[in-house]
Recover the amino acids of this structure.
């Protein structure tokens, strides 16, 4: 992993957004990766906005992997205000957002987030 990426992940980890269970969530998604044993759960709550059903809040819980936590933290911020379809259309690279390109070994961490 490059120093730069390490730094950006550390940054996201220092102040992870939207951590924890979301009470009254409308949807929950859980995915696991059998290789590394990581599990990630994502909660989503919708609201009505201008006649559209958009994501009001999203939270996550992750068990271990720092990259997955960093990506989930960014992703839960990114999908706010989007419809479910728009959020689902986001690609792994987009979810990883400002973390920039991930090294091959770490791509599945972001895919975990996409899956959830
Ligand atoms: Fe498996 Fe990151 S190492 S989710």
């Amino acid at each position: 992993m490059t120093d730069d990426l390490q730094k950006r992940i550390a940054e996201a980890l220092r102040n992870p957004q939207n951590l924890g269970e979301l009470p009254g969530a409308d949807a929950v998604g859980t995915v696991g990766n059998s290789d590394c044993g990581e599990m990630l759960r994502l909660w989503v709550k919708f609201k009505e906005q201008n006649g559209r059903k958009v994501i009001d809040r999203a939270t996550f819980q992750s068990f271990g992997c720092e990259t997955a936590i960093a990506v989930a933290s960014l992703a839960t911020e990114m999908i706010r205000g989007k419809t479910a379809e728009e959020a689902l259309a986001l690609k792994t690279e987009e979810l990883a957002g400002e973390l920039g390109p991930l090294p091959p070994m770490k791509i599945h961490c972001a895919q975990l987030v996409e899956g959830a």
Summary: The first helix runs from residue 3 to 14. The pocket of FE2/S2 (inorganic) cluster is lined by residues 33, 36, 38, 65, 67-68, 108-109, 112 (CB under 6 Å). The first strand starts at residue 27 and ends at 32.
